[in-house]
């Protein structure tokens, strides 16, 4: 068969890459999981499971599929990240890859639920959905290859259409990129330079983003050259995002999904011949799909396409399905087989940062310093990718909606208790020996400095005090009697 019509190298290369992304994800959450969800963490998962167990019956195992029903101790949480890293390496080196893919999916799905609000992000859903499809991927599985293209289509198209369905004025008015580089959760140093671009270029780029997200995805189902064009446009846009934003492995995984828009002949032109020979040998050793496997993949495809169409309908019309349809979609979403994607459907127009300070006597106050989020106005933004610092990222949401206040309240209480697992998530704990008695929270409006200000003072940011953070301006450690 001509290499224009084969996807053996494409499939095998992607399987190695999904192992790389799993490894990054497991290691990244592994250094944070105790502070986020451990017994002394911000949101102890064992307590969450105990609460769910009192509220539901046997269906809890279906609604929240996690191995931590068996054991949710700190050791179990850490073991899941270590075993997940090991199975990721097995995928990369093609050691029992199907077994490793299954274990990796089960463990990351379990950690997804363990992390609660800290793991409820679209990149976590994307790696799980891609990881699930990878379990069934073979070079000859045209159905799964189609599903990967369909996943990339949904990721891009839903991100674009949501910007209109949610009626955000910054997108409809083409001003979103006037704010994005400054207000995004964790900008890179290049974001400062991008923010200084002329307004006409930022507006044009906003319009181009909408075109790339809404129209280009349809090219992914067109003939070969159209698919290639869609792939290269998508890759270029993802590279620009990587340069200006710290979105962990999200954009790299999006680029990897573009592999399925190419074919073996195209891939052979861009990867080293030695690597082509190694992958080609693995491809040659693959066997023909059995009838039972084809039936299974067809059933999976029908389920995914059905639920995806429902999600697209709901997102476009901003309506929610009911009855049996809703039940089917809910279960597929519970296992992260199908997810909704809507990257920055609304855009903040100002950056509000919270500063936490502790005190023992209520007179002398010392600041807590985060590892990555903006604080010192003289310090340049960090380059964090492909790591995902979930506490720093989640702090961005606290000022957006009251729904984020409960976890933030628990975070402050953890600081009052001087929890080692939680303070380890910070760059600096000003109370290493004795916990503070009080913690206060102040709000500041941050803006990128302009070129003149940067040349004069060297500062990356300017900030304006907004006073105490109203929902939680002050919190006190109650004495024990």
What does this structure look like?
By secondary structure, this protein is α+β, with helices and mostly antiparallel strands. It folds into two domains: 3-334, no CATH class; 351-476, no CATH class. Helices cover 56% and strands 7% of the residues. Strands 1, 2, 3, 4 and 5 form a five-stranded antiparallel β-sheet that branches. β1 (351-359) and β2 form a beta hairpin. α1 (8-30) crosses α7, α6 packs antiparallel against α7 and α7 packs antiparallel against α8 (142-165). The chain is globular. The protein starts with 7 loop residues before the first helix and ends in a 5-residue tail after the last strand.
Give a nutshell description of this structure:
With 481 residues, the protein is an alpha+beta fold.
Secondary-structure-derived class: alpha+beta
Calculate Rg over CA atoms: 24 Å
Estimated share of beta-strand residues: 5-15%
Uncertain ranges: none
- How many discrete domains? 2
Q: Helical proportion?
A: 55-70%
Instruction: Please trace the helix and strand order, writing H or E for each element.
Output: HHHHHHHHHHHHHHHHHHEEHHHEHEE
Largest sheet data:
5 strands, antiparallel
Overall mean pLDDT:
91
Distance between the termini: 79 Å
Shape: globular
Number of helices: 22
Total number of β-strand segments?
A: 5
């Amino acid at each position: 068969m001509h290499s224009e019509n084969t996807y053996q190298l494409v499939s095998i290369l992607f399987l190695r890459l999904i192992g790389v992304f799993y490894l990054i994800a497991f290691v990244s959450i592994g250094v944070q999981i105790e502070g986020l969800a451990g017994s002394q963490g911000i949101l102890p998962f064992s307590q969450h499971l105990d609460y769910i167990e009192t509220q539901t019956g046997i269906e809890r195992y279906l609604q929240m599929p996690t191995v931590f029903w068996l054991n949710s101790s700190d050791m179990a949480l850490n073991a899941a990240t270590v075993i997940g890293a090991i199975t990721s390496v097995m995928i990369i080196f093609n050691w029992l890859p199907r077994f490793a893919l299954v274990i990796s999916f089960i463990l990351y799905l379990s950690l997804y639920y363990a992390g609660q609000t800290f793991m409820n992000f679209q990149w976590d859903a994307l790696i799980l959905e891609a990881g699930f499809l990878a379990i069934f991927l073979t070079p000859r599985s045209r159905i799964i290859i189609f599903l990967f293209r369909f996943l990339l289509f949904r990721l891009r198209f839903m991100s674009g259409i949501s910007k209109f369905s949610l009626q955000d004025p910054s997108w409809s008015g083409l001003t979103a990129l006037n704010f994005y580089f400054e207000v995004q959760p964790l900008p890179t140093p290049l974001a400062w330079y991008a923010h200084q671009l002329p307004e006409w270029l930022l507006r044009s780029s906003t319009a181009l983003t909408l075109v790339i997200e809404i129209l280009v995805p349809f090219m992914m189902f067109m003939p070969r050259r159209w698919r290639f064009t869609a792939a290269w446009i998508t890759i270029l846009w993802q590279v620009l995002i990587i340069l200006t934003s710290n979105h962990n492995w999200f954009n790299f995984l999006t680029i990897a999904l573009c592999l399925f828009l190419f074919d073996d002949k195209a891939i052979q032109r861009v990867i080293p011949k030695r690597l082509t020979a190694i992958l080609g040998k693995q491809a040659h050793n693959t066997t023909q799909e059995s009838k039972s496997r084809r039936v299974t993949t067809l059933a999976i495809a029908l389920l995914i396409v059905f639920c995806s169409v429902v999600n697209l309908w709901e997102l476009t019309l901003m309506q929610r399905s009911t009855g049996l349809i809703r039940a089917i979609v809910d279960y597929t979403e519970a296992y992260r087989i199908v997810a909704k994607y809507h990257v920055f459907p609304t855009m903040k127009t100002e950056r509000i940062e919270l500063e936490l300070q502790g005190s023992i006597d209520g007179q002398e106050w010392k600041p807590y310093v985060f590892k990555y989020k903006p604080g010192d106005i003289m310090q340049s933004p960090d380059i964090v990718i492909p790591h995902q610092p979930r506490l720093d990222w989640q702090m961005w949401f606290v000022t957006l909606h009251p729904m984020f206040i409960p976890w933030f309240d628990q975070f402050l209480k953890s600081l009052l208790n001087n929890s080692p697992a939680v303070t380890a998530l910070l760059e600096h704990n000003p109370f290493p020996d004795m916990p503070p008695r009080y913690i206060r929270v102040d709000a500041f409006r941050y803006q990128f400095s302009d070129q003149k200000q940067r040349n004069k003072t060297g500062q990356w940011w300017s900030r304006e005090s907004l006073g105490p953070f109203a929902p939680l301006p002050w919190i006190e450690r109650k004495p024990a009697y």
